[in-house]
Write a sequence for this structure.
């Protein structure tokens, strides 16, 4: 049976499950080159068909990661200049969970229902015209998030928590996962959105709320301010009974931004970031702790855009009540396509929770295609019997390496199939390499490390071992080892590692093993293969362009090709 999952909101994409196995997952931005692409995923759907040999007419079931999408691409516009649909959505979500009986809410809900009926009709027509006869199901957004995490955790019993900006009127939920089934025990109305809180803070700090939330996490370590925290905590707290973040003053959108700008007047963006990170951590972490006590399941699985915050994930991992933590590798809305597909598979195949061996679910390129692209871009091609030694030596010399191999990673992290590698010993590399890539970042680069060395470098590693495979968790670096790897250690002593082993990532593991022989270090820098504001590279031509403009010094295509200037 072929089961297709779709997300057609921001960071749209598709996923395919064939006979109970994930065979494809990718997001539209990689193909259109529009970061966090919004809209129906035409390009990724086409790529799925080409990669898997499955036409739309071959699809048996389709699942969408939203019951209803009435948001529009201006969803983070706080100016009030957005169109009518944006205003309708603002009214609906402002009143959701507070004044459901109001005439305004009812009128807006009716209009939203009309929009949704029209959109669903267009979707059904699209598939019907292409020969698809199967059923189309629109799932609750947070159930899709929950499914993405639970069914890829590998744990039969788990506490499942979702937290994000919002979807289908909610901004979070708590489920029990057991025996292949999800049961909701609590939900968070959108008015209490922790994701929206983070967007407001990102905006008043001068960044794009939809793309740059991670910058706030990085800034939070620069200037601790108890005074800023004390002010901010008067606005946001915790609903202990419902186990969710709480917006105490029911601030929303422009009213929230205006209030917070006034409240935080006189504080630097670093101080505001510190206060926001602390407020988020304390309340969401306590919500998760209460959820674990409620369910009795000490294994925790997380999804939703708020859990892109690796420092928050670290705090959750450190809870005494928590045994292990797993974050779905594509925790944001881009992961709901796979979540919807997994929900369908669970209902028709009694799918149980299975761990992910890897997330290399995108497309790949044939050797002849890569060689052709190398020559077309004006480079020569060198075939190497064992490239790992050369790559390790070049890194040790201080060169920046582009690595392009195999199938593209699913999710927002570069996990060594579309990565940039460099040595971790230069304390200035965050400044000069980010400048070369036209980035503005406040956190150091992430390390990739041989799995067998991870426990020696990071505190509490066993509790986050599974999460570390996908670079979704921060760990405290052992005190005595920090000075030797300044390029990957943050001001607060943390790092966000990806672990590799010789079975899952044979080439990368071999590169690190060779680097270890040369330098005594079992790790190196791994940062995403892209410039600022661009998606991670998809094609060989895009990788070669980075070499041409000097963003990287060397470029290798797995398993054994080097593009030579």
């Amino acid at each position: 049976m072929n089961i297709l999952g779709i997300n057609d909101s921001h960071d749209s994409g598709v996923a395919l499950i064939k006979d109970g196995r994930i065979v494809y997952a990718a997001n539209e931005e990689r193909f259109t080159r529009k970061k966090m692409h919004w809209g129906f995923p035409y390009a990724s759907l086409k790529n799925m068909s080409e990669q898997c040999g499955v036409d739309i007419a071959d699809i048996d079931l389709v699942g969408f990661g939203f019951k209803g999408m009435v948001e529009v691409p201006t969803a983070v516009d706080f100016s009030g200049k957005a169109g009518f649909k944006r205003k309708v959505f603002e009214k609906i979500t402002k009143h959701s969970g507070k004044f459901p009986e109001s005439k305004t809410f009812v009128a807006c809900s009716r209009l939203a229902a009309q929009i949704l009926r029209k959109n669903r009709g267009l979707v059904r027509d699209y598939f019907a015209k292409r020969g698809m006869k199967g059923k189309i199901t629109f799932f609750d957004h947070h159930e899709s998030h929950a499914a993405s995490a639970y069914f890829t955790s590998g744990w039969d019993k788990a506490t499942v928590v979702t937290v994000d900006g919002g979807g289908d009127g909610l901004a979070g939920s708590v489920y029990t996962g057991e025996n292949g089934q999800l049961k909701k025990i609590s939900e968070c109305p959108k008015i209490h959105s922790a994701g929206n809180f983070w967007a407001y803070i990102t905006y008043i700090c001068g960044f794009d709320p939809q793309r740059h939330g991670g910058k706030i996490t990085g800034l939070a370590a620069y200037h601790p301010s108890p005074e800023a925290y004390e002010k901010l905590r008067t606005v946001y707290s915790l609903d202990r009974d419902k186990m969710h973040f709480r917006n105490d003053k029911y601030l929303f959108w422009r009213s929230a931004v205006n209030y917070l700008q006034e409240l935080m007047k006189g504080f630097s963006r670093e101080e505001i970031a510190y206060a926001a990170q602390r407020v988020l951590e304390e309340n969401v972490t306590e919500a998760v702790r209460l959820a674990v006590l409620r369910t009795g399941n000490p294994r925790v699985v997380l999804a939703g855009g708020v859990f892109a915050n690796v420092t928050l994930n670290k705090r959750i991992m450190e809870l005494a009540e928590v045994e292990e933590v797993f974050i779905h590798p594509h925790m944001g809305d881009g992961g709901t396509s796979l979540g919807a597909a997994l929900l369908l598979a669970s209902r028709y195949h009694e799918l149980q929770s299975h761990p992910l061996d890897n997330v290399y679910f995108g497309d790949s390129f044939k050797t002849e295609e890569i060689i052709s692209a190398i020559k077309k871009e004006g480079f020569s091609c060198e075939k190497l019997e064992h490239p790992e030694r050369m790559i390790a030596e070049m890194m040790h010399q201080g060169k920046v390496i582009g690595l392009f191999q195999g199938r593209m990673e699913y999710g927002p992290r570069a996990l060594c199939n579309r990565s940039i590698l460099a040595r971790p010993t230069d304390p200035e590399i965050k400044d000069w390499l980010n400048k070369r890539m036209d980035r503005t970042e406040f956190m150091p680069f992430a390390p990739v490390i041989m799995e067998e060395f991870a426990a020696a470098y990071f505190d509490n590693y066993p509790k986050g071992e599974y999460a570390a495979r996908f670079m979704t968790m921060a760990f405290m670096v052992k005190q005595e080892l920090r000075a030797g790897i300044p390029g990957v250690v943050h001001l607060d002593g943390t790092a966000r590692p990806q672990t590799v082993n010789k079975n899952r990532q044979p080439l990368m593991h071999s590169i690190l093993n060779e680097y270890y022989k040369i330098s005594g270090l079992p790790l190196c820098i791994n940062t995403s293969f892209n410039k600022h504001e661009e998606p991670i590279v998809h094609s060989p031509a895009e990788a070669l362009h980075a070499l041409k403009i000097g963003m990287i010094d060397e470029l290798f295509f797995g398993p054994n090709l080097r593009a030579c200037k």
